[in-house]
């Protein structure tokens, strides 16, 4: 559980630009992982799940920030 909290706190500390860049990197990695899985070259299958969840964390944080900004 502490591992997830650490990742979340790291993401909360980042700016919108940094989050966007991180999201792009994760999407690129997810794309590459899908190809590796299709060709049976995937070394760490659990990484697919981690990347998907990290993408979801960033998108959730971005939508939360945009909602907060719109409410002000």
UniProtKB/TrEMBL annotation:
CDD domains the UniProt entry points to: Ribosomal_L29_HIP
Keyword Iron among UniProt keywords: no
GO CC field: ribosome
Keyword terms of this UniProt record: Ribonucleoprotein, Ribosomal protein
UniProt cross-references to Pfam families, sorted A to Z: Ribosomal_L29
HAMAP family per the UniProt record, alphabetical: Ribosomal_uL29
Name by which UniProt lists this protein: Large ribosomal subunit protein uL29
């Amino acid at each position: 559980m502490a591992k997830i909290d650490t990742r979340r706190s790291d993401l909360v500390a980042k700016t919108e630009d940094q989050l966007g860049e991180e999201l792009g990197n994760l999407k690129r990695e997810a794309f590459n992982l899908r190809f590796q899985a299709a060709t049976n070259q995937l070394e760490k299958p659990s990484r697919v799940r981690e990347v998907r969840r990290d993408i979801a964390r960033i998108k959730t944080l971005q939508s939360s920030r945009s909602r907060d900004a719109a409410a002000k």
